[in-house]
Amino acid sequence: MTCFGVVILLICCINKKNQEKMNELDLKYNQLLLEVADFKNELISSDIFETMKDKFIN
Question: What are the alphabetically sorted keywords of the record (predicted)?
Fold first, then answer.
């Protein structure tokens, strides 16, 4: 294998590793978004939110 072939192979391996890490990060980001949405829904449906909303709006 030539030096050029080794470089191409190395780039492909690095690219694959980076893609795997990006997929992991995307999954974690999406899970965080779901958790934030769930928290927001719980907060909006709670009595505390209604009480605070009434205090600040009225």
Answer: Coiled coil
Containing structural domain, residue 27: 1-57
Domain count, the chain: 1
Which tokens go with 48? 């505390």
**Amino acid type, 23:** N
- Please name the helix (run of DSSP H) or strand (run of DSSP E) that holds residue 54, with its range, or none: helix 47-57
Measured N-to-C along each axis, helices 47-57 and 3-45 cross at an angle, to the nearest 10 degrees, of 80
What's the one-letter identity of residue 34?
L
First to last CA, the chain: 76
What's this model's pTM, rounded to 2 decimal places? Answer: 0.60
